[in-house]
UniProtKB/TrEMBL annotation:
The keyword rRNA processing does not apply. It comes from the Bacteria. One of its GO terms (molecular function) is sigma factor antagonist activity. This is FecR protein. InterPro entries: ConA-like_dom_sf (IPR013320), Ferrdict_sens_TM (IPR012373). The chain crosses the membrane at residues 91-114. Pfam families: Laminin_G_3 (PF13385). Keywords: Membrane, Transmembrane, Transmembrane helix. It comes from Gimesia chilikensis. The keyword Transmembrane applies.
Amino acid sequence: MTQPDPDIREQILELADAQCAGIITEDELAALEGLLTAHPEYRREYLNYVFVHIGLAGTAQARVLQDPEAELPLSVKPATDNTSEPIERGYLVMLIPIVCSAICLGAVGIFLLMGDFQGLWEPEMVLQQRSKYYFDDSASPPEEIASVNQVARARWELLGNSPAVTDRFQPGTVKVTSGEVEFAFSGGADINVVSPSLFGFERKDQGTLFSGSVSTQRSDRKALFRLETPSIELIDQGTEYEVSVNEAAETFVHVLDGQLAVKPRGRLPRFYWNFDEAPQTALSDMLNQSPVQAGKNALRVQGLIGPGAIQFNNRPDASLRLGNGGGQEVGTGDYAVSTGITIEALVVSDWKAAESPQTRAPFDYDEIFRKEDGSYRILLSFQNDDKAGITQIPQVGDGPCLSFGLYLSGLGYSELDMPLDGKEGRPTLAEMRDGQPHHIVATYNGWTGEKAIYIDGIMRMSHRFPVGTMIISGGAAPAVIGNLISAQSATLVGREPFNGVIDEVAFYDYALNAGTIATHFSLFKAGKDYFDGQFLDILRQEKQEDYLLIHKGQKMKFSAETGKPVL
């Protein structure tokens, strides 16, 4: 937000004071109009100033409004008693309505001339600054999915590098620190957020309660609305209910009217490729049977686990194109995630990178997984360049690294670059390309803000972002294993091919915890897949699990670990 210029502000308020007192000259009035034209950021404050003077016209003086960056909402001090003589007071009382009307008409007239009448009567604390500061100029931002409906003396701000008060929201997280705010989702739901709360806007029909309390009123809307908490997913169609999440991440639900469907959040990956199909059978995802298009230099070989894996030979058409999951715009498709992500794979790397960083393009990147939606990309790759510091969080030195890149709301795109230097528990470059399979896992957990990279069951590097910071992802570009292919390319040819073998790739829409990752590595070392051979049974059970219906008047508590009701 642009910081006010105290000199210009003071000039405007001095001229406004003269206008309110009825002593402004024609030249001064022209100067006032010129300043307001050149500095529109002061127009609302000018008008508020005039109306406060109108409200205090019977007092000795009016209080000058606070700076718009200061505490909201505006509080006006009571005026002091006027000690004028009775006869003077009588004339003043007669003149007040006339003077006030003239000032009001003059002030509104200036705004009409400037074309700034729209939104004039909106609550002062709802500033018309949109939340598009999230997004890069080079990328198309997601559509607005919610707006402020009602305010009860509330204070809130968006999470990110440039916190702001706003009344319209793209995907992101808002922190309500006082009062209550009702947000109207474009999908039809009205969600009332009570302070103190941390609430995320995911999609037009989906929100996230990280902490605090929300409620909704009964309505006749047809669209479903999904509310996510740390352990459960709630679905309603106009139900009236209250939900809260405590410090232990337990969820409390109270249905006031109608009924609400509740289900534990899924624990299986969204996609899983084990490459174990028979040679004559096309490759596909194990969960959805989504087809995989293989470039001619992506060859089937003996599996690191099971009968099959894929070998890549560093050629442009060494690729597995997975499709975009139905995505068209940012935030859409099955690869669009918000509160968390895990990318997991078994890898034998023959990366040919030099020990020293490359100093000019083209750089030798070996992609494990990449979905190239511009700034909203998801990537997990070996990299070796001297320009990575532009997007690194945290900053590390140049040289070979394993990079995990995401776009985080309010913060932009950044990469967790783990140097392959053998320091602080990290593996060396030689260890990563020793010809042996390694279990590589990259996670981001919006509930904790932790972004991390695990190698062989152990966390090797991590960084903490603010709790509640969400991922923005998805779009038209294809997801790819072993290469980079953009949305503009319809071929299987990419420009950042992998060199080596990849097997057992899983894509989750949540962050695996450290214990689960360690278990997966132990299973791999025992010659088993991540699910101990029980994947299809677990999938069948999860698909058969029905939503629990909570009816009017019922209250329930749900476990943070399992999402099951706690009796």
